[in-house]
Amino acid sequence: MVVLTPASPPLRREGVREPLPPPLPGTRGPARVRARAALWRFRFALAAVCLGAAAAVTLQTLRPPPAPTVPVVVLAHDVSAGTALAAGDVVVADVPAAAAPADALRTPADAHGHVAAVDLPARLPVTPTLLTGAVMAGPAGTVVVAVRLDDPAVAGLLKPGLHLDLVAARLEGGPGETVARRALVRPAPDGEAAPGGLLGTTSPDDGPPVLVAVTPDEALLIAQASVSSRLVAVVVP
């Protein structure tokens, strides 16, 4: 007689790992599900982008509109007092309407040929009060006088806009006296001889007179010194 017994399970060997089951075949979910998963994965980045866009729109909305501007004539560079303005000295620039003087010049031609009454910085709007059309005029509070210098050759070297100290040197010797400080050299009238000045009529050997703008008190000192002194010019800053 044959006796049947259940089969015994295979014996496991110590230290031997059983092989893993084969992987399941890959499957892809619907496109809608995949899109939602991608959005969820990048939710923080998307939130940051949305917040940045909202902030940019808010700033653009709250930013005030640019201030209105008007075209006016301004100086292209620093200009010294006594300089006759030419084409390269002035340009037209847009400046805020609130900062533009009401009487500012509008076209460069309005400034050409006029003389700066005082030292003017670059980019300054040009107004009629800063200019003078007459070379015999000086800055406010000054008068223009014509003087003859002790050295006639020096007169031809002095250009409009320079500042001079005028020293009266006595003919008999002794210490000199400064009769004018920072006198402003003015341009001579075109096509005309400058007047004889405070020193009166002199010989042609004395050279051309120099027009300078000084205070009224200094003009009086120059007139007094011309009786017994010769004037020496010292160029100063």
What do these coordinates show?
The chain has 237 residues and is of the alpha+beta class. It has four helices and nine strands, in the order H-H-E-E-E-E-E-H-E-E-E-H-E.
User: How many strands, which pairing sense, and closed or not: the largest β-sheet?
Assistant: 5 strands, antiparallel
Enumerate how many helices there are, as a single number. Answer: 4
Which residue ranges are poorly predicted, with pLDDT under 50 across at least 5 consecutive positions? 191-204
Can you give the helix content as a percent range?
Answer: 10-25%
Structural class computed from helices and strand pairing: alpha+beta
Number of extended strands: 9
Structural Rg: 45 Å
SSE sequence, one letter per element: HHEEEEEHEEEHE
Span of the ends, CA to CA: 140 Å
- Mean of pLDDT: 77
Strand proportion = 15-25%
How do the strands of the widest beta sheet line up side by side?
5-8-7-6-9
Shape: elongated
List the helices and strands and how they pair.
Elements: H1 31-41, H2 43-62, E1 69-75, E2 90-96, E3 115-116, E4 131-132, E5 143-147, H3 152-155, E6 163-170, E7 177-185, E8 210-214, H4 216-225, E9 229-236
Antiparallel strand pairs: 1-2, 3-4, 5-8, 6-7, 6-9, 7-8
Keywords for this structure?
237 residues; alpha+beta; five-stranded antiparallel sheet; two-stranded antiparallel ribbon; 4 helices; 9 strands; elongated
